[in-house]
Amino acid sequence: MNLQNSLLPPHAEMVRAMLERDTSYEGVFFTAVKTTGIFCRPSCTARKPKPENMEFFAGVNECLAAGYRACLRCKPLDAADSAPDWVQGLLKSVDAQPDTRWSDAQLLAQGIEPLKLRRWFKQHMGMTFHAWLRARRLGQALDGIKQGETIDGVAFDSGYESLSGFRDAFQKSFHITPGRAANSEPLLFTRLTTPLGPMIAMAERRGLVLLEFLDQSSLRPEVEALQSRFGYAVAPGHNVHLQQIGQQLAEYFAGERKVFSVALHMPGSEFSRQVWAELATIPYGQTTTYGAIAQRLGKPGASRAVGLANGHNRISIVVPCHRVIGADGSLTGYAGGEPRKAFLLRLENAPVQLTGQLAF
């Protein structure tokens, strides 16, 4: 499937995205280079070819069928931004040995270069490996306090030599004192890989609270709002809801799932929750408009308010705000980027003719 018969963004837009390494196009298309015989992701860091030597495809199978081989740098055959084997092995070791401090000497003994590890975690987790470890230990301490353990006990179990040091780190991480932790709600997060790039999933005991692409500019304000408005204590970790969304998201992108069953918990204003509930009823492969949602809510003049609430949806894909389009058939805004929105609608075979720049 080449550019002429595939459902792809305009040629000029793909050239721009490739030259600028635009991550919002991750998984939307792949670039094949005629002079080298390889194909890459849009975000590949290799030296860029001349536009006249580029050829674009919708998927890796089309690239391979055309005789191209995968780039060894960006590895387009892997899930987008998936953790390399050496990182995955380290994460398994951390799970198996949660009390290990993991000094640079220990990392080197495992064949892991500390600086390389630091760079990977900063790029993909937004923090260094050691900062991630501290956050993980503090999350375990928070859980211990919630379970009735003493602050002194969890402080020393977490590896802190002084209670004051533990209190300072705890408050800096969770924006609450350890004494107030028993009344807070832990919000655990993990990183998920998808064909459209890495996502972050956050869940508490009642269900999934957030699912967003990691490169979204709105992500940090959303997390800060969850901490300040709803009292969440955010820490890396795992629970049943995070395990479910990881599995169900993989099934969705493989075309094997149309309905998500993971439990959701969506704190917000009454009107926002009404809008989000309506979003959740939009069937797979169908679209609607802000005006139609306002009509169903009995507020026909509230299209703009519906649009704002739609934009504040924190759970991408599962609460399908990508199925809401403009009254003129245009894509309209999408926090994850309009290329991703077009990809998701293509994936679902949505019967809609879009008139915007990314029409398909």
Automatic annotation (TrEMBL):
Any one annotated GO CC term: cytoplasm
Required cofactor names: Zn(2+)
Active site positions, chain numbering: C40 (nucleophile), C321 (nucleophile), C321 (nucleophile)
PROSITE patterns found in the cross-reference section: HTH_ARAC_FAMILY_2 (PS01124), MGMT (PS00374)
Organism domain of life: Bacteria
Cofactor detail note: Binds 1 zinc ion per subunit.
Domain HTH araC/xylS-type: 111-184
A GO molecular function held by the record: sequence-specific DNA binding
Compartments reported by the entry: Cytoplasm
Miscellaneous note of the record: This enzyme catalyzes only one turnover and therefore is not strictly catalytic. According to one definition, an enzyme is a biocatalyst that acts repeatedly and over many reaction cycles.
HAMAP family attached to this UniProt entry: OGT
Function: Involved in the cellular defense against the biological effects of O6-methylguanine (O6-MeG) and O4-methylthymine (O4-MeT) in DNA. Repairs the methylated nucleobase in DNA by stoichiometrically transferring the methyl group to a cysteine residue in the enzyme. This is a suicide reaction: the enzyme is irreversibly inactivated.
UniProt-recorded name of the protein: Methylated-DNA--protein-cysteine methyltransferase
Protein's organism: Pseudomonas vancouverensis
